[in-house]
Design brief:
mainly alpha
C-alpha cells in the first residue's frame, strides 16, 4: 500500500470519527447549553433591539393569518381543504423563526433555562423584562399588520373575508377552551426551539410541520392570534373587554404553562444532574 493511500484512509477515518463525535455531541445536555447560551445573549440585548425585533415578529407573523386565509379563499371547499389551508399558517413562523426575530412563545423556554441555572432575583427580573418588552412589541406589530388588512385595500376582498372568518373562529371560543387549547401550542413551540440545534438543514421542514400541527389541531397561539384579535377589534366586531379577558389573557396563560411549566421543566429534568446551579 502506498503512503498516499495510507494517508487518504487516515483522513477518511478521521472524518468519520469527527462526524460521529458531532452527532454524539448533541446530547440533551449539549442542546440545553446551546439554548441556554442563546437565552443569555437575548437577555443581554438592549431594550431597543428587543423592541424592534419583537415588532418585526408581530408584523411578519401576520403572514400566518394571510397565508391560511389565502388558501381558504381560493381552494375548493372540500373536506381536504382544512388540512391544506393550514400549511399557510406556517408561513409567518418560518419568516420569524428563521429570520431570528423575537417571538414571545420562543422565550418561554429560551430565557427560562438560564434562570434555572442562576436562580437569582436579577435573573428573574431580566427574564420578566424581556417577556414584557417582546410581548408588547409582538402585539403592537400584530395591530400594525391588522391595520393594513382592515384600513387599506392591500388584501383582496375574498381573502379579507376569509381573514374575518378565521379571526372569528380563533377568538370566538370560550375563555376556558382558549386556555386549554393554548397549552399544546406552547409545548409545540418550545419543542421546536429544543429541536432546532440539531435540525440543521431540516429546520425548514421542522418548523413547517410542527406549526402546521398547531393550526391543524386548532390550538391557540398568543402572537398569531393577536393578529386575528386585532383585525376584529379594528373592524369593530370585537370589544376590548372580550379581546383582553376572553381571548388574550387565557391564551397567554396557556402558552406560558405549555412552554414553561410543562416543556421547559421536563427538559430541565433531563439535564439538572449534569448542570451546576448557582
Amino acid at each position: 500500500m502506498s503512503p498516499f493511500s495510507s494517508r487518504q484512509e487516515q483522513k477518511e477515518q478521521m472524518a468519520r470519527e469527527q462526524s460521529l463525535d458531532e452527532a454524539a455531541s448533541l446530547s440533551p445536555h449539549m442542546i440545553y447549553e446551546v439554548i441556554r447560551r442563546e437565552g443569555e445573549e437575548e437577555l443581554r440585548r438592549t431594550k431597543r433591539s428587543l423592541f424592534w425585533s419583537g415588532a418585526a415578529a408581530g408584523i411578519l407573523i401576520s403572514l400566518s393569518v394571510l397565508g391560511e386565509a389565502t388558501f381558504r379563499a381560493y381552494l375548493p371547499d372540500t373536506p381536504a381543504r382544512f388540512l391544506l389551508e393550514n400549511l399557510g399558517y406556517s408561513l409567518g413562523f418560518l419568516a420569524v423563526i428563521m429570520g431570528r426575530m423575537q417571538l414571545f412563545t420562543e422565550n418561554t423556554i429560551t430565557t427560562v433555562l438560564p434562570l434555572m441555572r442562576k436562580r437569582t432575583l436579577w435573573a428573574l427580573g431580566s427574564m420578566l423584562r424581556l417577556w414584557v418588552i417582546v410581548l408588547g412589541a409582538n402585539v403592537l406589530g400584530a395591530f400594525a399588520a391588522a391595520a393594513l388588512f382592515v384600513y387599506t385595500p392591500a388584501v383582496a376582498p375574498d381573502t379579507f373575508a376569509a381573514i374575518i372568518s378565521l379571526s372569528e373562529h380563533a377568538t370566538g371560543m370560550p375563555a376556558g377552551e382558549g386556555f386549554w387549547r393554548a397549552i399544546p401550542a406552547g409545548v409545540i413551540v418550545a419543542l421546536i426551539v429544543w429541536m432546532l440545534p440539531q435540525a440543521s438543514e431540516a429546520a425548514f421542514f421542522l418548523i413547517l410541520t410542527f406549526t402546521w400541527m398547531i393550526a391543524a389541531g386548532d390550538f391557540t397561539h398568543i402572537v398569531a392570534g393577536s393578529v386575528e384579535m386585532a383585525v376584529l377589534v379594528l373592524d369593530g366586531s370585537l370589544s376590548g373587554y372580550d379581546a383582553v379577558f376572553r381571548f388574550f389573557l387565557p391564551v397567554l396563560a396557556g402558552n406560558i404553562i405549555g412552554g414553561t411549566v410543562i416543556f421547559t421543566l421536563v427538559a430541565w429534568g433531563q439535564v439538572r444532574d449534569e448542570v451546576k446551579t448557582e
